[in-house]
């Protein structure tokens, strides 16, 4: 309940946080990033900043490049980042090898949720905490995810879609996370479950974690978010407050088909 407390898990090793220490430096930024799937040029010069603890809705029509942008930021193998800079708390993410971004606190929860079948809920959580740097303890996770307490001994693949999404987010929190990237977390879920996940994401924000959420359910994402980015053909078409998008019918028609 009282969640507005620590910013970083106390693992005692986090003394060297932001390198630059410049106060004006954004918490997260990508600067003119370009990424390719093979020859296909998809992320075409995207730039934006994100403030600490902000929830950003990353929106756009099908194929606009939302998933590709999240994957580029998370430094997955594909799409391949060919140009541009990405910084998290002053750390140069673009200079890391693929799959190293997670060590800096960037965690992507992909659309397919990727819980580990054959393991129980609790085993999924324990496995996420197997290597340093770890994040929330099991106790802390269970305080925020009461449904997972009920399901702790259940095999993960037998959970409902909503519960699997909760487990996927919980697994991310079990790591030492600074920036949470969510790809379509509400997909296929009933409104009551979407509501529960919204509550959890609000608590995650209060705990000091920054989130970028991609959602087809743009209205739900905008109601949760502080700000919005709209992508169109691999470029940023709009950057502003979430309220501006909710209020601007033309913008919604043009880029979100709402
Ligand atoms: N593995 C891939 N190889 C080649 N092109 C790809 C690949 N994945 C996506 N694309 C292309 O990149 C573009 C952007 O796709 P992306 O999945 O990032 O869009 P999106 O905004 O997430 O769309 P959606 O709302 O449908 O999830 C599309 O034209 C898509 O066809
Ligand atoms: Mg997508």
Distance from N terminus to C terminus (CA atoms, Å) equals: 35 Å
Going by CATH, the homologous superfamily would be: P-loop containing nucleotide triphosphate hydrolases
Bound molecules: adenosine-5'-triphosphate, magnesium ion
**Could you please say which CATH topology applies here?**
Rossmann fold
Number of helices: 9
Which ranges are low-confidence, i.e. pLDDT below 50, for 5 or more consecutive residues? 1-22
Net shape = globular
Q: CATH class, please?
A: Alpha Beta
The amount of helix comes to: 25-40%
- Which architecture would the CATH scheme give at its second level? 3-Layer(aba) Sandwich
User: How many β-strand runs?
Assistant: 10
pLDDT averaged over residues: 91
Number of domains: 1
Radius of gyration, whole Å: 18 Å
Share of residues in strands:
15-25%
Q: What are the secondary-structure elements, in order, as H or E? A: EEEHEEEHHHHEHEHEEHH
Biggest sheet, spatial arrangement of strands: 6-7-8-3-9-10
Largest sheet: 6 strands, mixed
Structural class: alpha/beta
Architecture overview:
The N terminus is likely disordered. It is built from nine helices and ten strands. The chain is an alpha/beta fold and 258 residues long. It is globular, with a radius of gyration of 18 Å. It binds adenosine-5'-triphosphate (ATP) and magnesium ion. Adenosine-5'-triphosphate binds next to β2 and α1.
């Amino acid at each position: 309940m009282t969640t507005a407390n620590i910013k970083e898990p106390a693992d005692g090793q986090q003394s060297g946080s932001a390198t630059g220490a410049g106060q004006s430096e954004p918490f997260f930024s990508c600067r003119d990033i370009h990424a390719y799937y093979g020859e296909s040029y998809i992320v075409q010069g995207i730039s934006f900043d994100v403030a600490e603890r902000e929830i950003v809705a990353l929106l756009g029509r099908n194929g606009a490049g939302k998933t590709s942008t999240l994957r580029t930021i998370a430094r997955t193998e594909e799409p391949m980042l060919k140009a541009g800079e990405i910084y998290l708390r002053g750390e140069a993410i673009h200079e890391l090898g693929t799959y190293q971004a997670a060590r800096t606190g960037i965690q992507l929860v992909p659309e397919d949720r990727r819980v580990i079948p054959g393991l129980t809920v609790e085993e999924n959580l324990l496995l996420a905490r197997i290597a340093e740097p770890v994040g929330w303890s099991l106790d802390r996770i269970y305080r925020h995810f009461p449904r997972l307490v009920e399901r702790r001994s259940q095999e993960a693949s037998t959970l409902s879609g909503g519960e699997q999404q909760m487990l996927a987010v919980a697994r991310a929190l079990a790591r030492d996370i600074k920036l949470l990237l969510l790809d379509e977390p509400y997909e296929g879920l009933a409104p009551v479950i979407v509501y529960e996940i919204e509550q959890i994401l609000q608590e995650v924000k209060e705990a000091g974690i920054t989130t970028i959420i991609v959602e087809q359910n743009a209205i739900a994402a905008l109601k949760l978010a502080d700000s919005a980015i709209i992508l169109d053909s691999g470029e940023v078409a709009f950057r502003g407050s979430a309220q501006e998008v909710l209020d601007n019918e033309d913008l919604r028609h043009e880029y979100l088909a709402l």
